[in-house]
Amino acid sequence: MPHHHAFLQNRVLAALQPHELQELQPHLKITHLKAGEILAESGKPLSHIYFPVDSAISLFYRLESGSSAGVAVIGNEGMFGVAQVLGGNTIPYWAVVETAGHVFQIESQPLAHLSASIDGLRNVFLLYAQASMTQISQTVVCEKHHSLIQQLCQHLLLISDKSLADDFVLTHEAIANMLGVRRESVSEVASELRNQGLIAYNRGRIKVLDRAGLETVCCECYGVVKAEFTRLLGDPH
């Protein structure tokens, strides 16, 4: 995992014009998030907005029964808190750090004021919000039409992208919570991928051994979402 963290490692920040990013820089602070850390609770406003560099933030909806379902995973392609910046104030989801890593953090109010006064900044946030809608919509498609092993492949590819590494800490329990399935089911399909030589795992650490192989087993959803982020925000740096 890289130790040097730059603004351009985040796709949203990289999509800004130099003078727009310059306006944000005094307010941005690099910080490390721990896996399992809760960043937001359902219905509560955010004090900070996060632009991940090499970490992943998962959004969950918690049902009255106590079970949960994953809504989206946010990493270096985006930001957590765009709804609040654009005037939504709160969201009905919980946000939990899925894989530890670094983010650029900024207080909500200064960012909201800058977004309202700088058109280019607001436009990039709107483009990201559109791309996020594609990700959430494609998650629904994936859950309804694709197998668990395909969903797991997509999730591992996403986490690898967001972690900027092929080796990351991610437990079967965390994956099960995100995919809305039993941990035993995740362990079963993860064993299949390991037997095929695509991944290795031990004590909560997963290593992608054959990325091309994972992409072959994965459904088309990964490519659809990746292409939409590139179309709206440009190629990653």
Describe it for me?
This protein has 237 residues and is α+β, with helices and mostly antiparallel strands. It is 46% helix and 22% strand. The chain contains ten helices and ten strands. The chain has helices at 11-14, 18-24, 82-85, 108-117, 119-145, 148-163, 172-179, 183-195, 211-217, 221-233, and strands spanning 29-33, 38-40, 48-52, 56-62, 68-74, 94-99, 101-107, 167-169, 199-202, 205-208. The strands form three sheets. It has a four-stranded antiparallel sheet with strand order 2-6-4-5. A three-stranded antiparallel sheet has the order 1-7-3. A hairpin with a 2-residue loop joins β9 and β10 (205-208). α6 (148-163) packs antiparallel against α9 and α7 (172-179) packs across α8 (183-195). The longest helix is centred in the middle third of the chain and has 27 residues, at 119-145. It is globular. The mean pLDDT is 91.
Q: How helix-rich are the residues, as a percent range?
A: 40-55%
Flag low-confidence runs. Answer: none
Give the C-alpha Rg: 17 Å
Strand order in the largest sheet: 2-6-4-5
Termini separation comes to: 16 Å
Order of helices and strands: HHEEEEEHEEHHHEHHEEHH
> Main β-sheet, in a few words?
4 strands, antiparallel
**What overall form do the CA principal axes indicate?**
globular
Q: Could you tell me the strand content as a percent range?
A: 15-25%
Tell me, rounded to a whole number, the average pLDDT.
91
| Total DSSP helices | 10
What structural category do the secondary elements indicate?
alpha+beta
Q: Oligomeric form of this entry? A: single chain
Record field, number of beta strands: 10
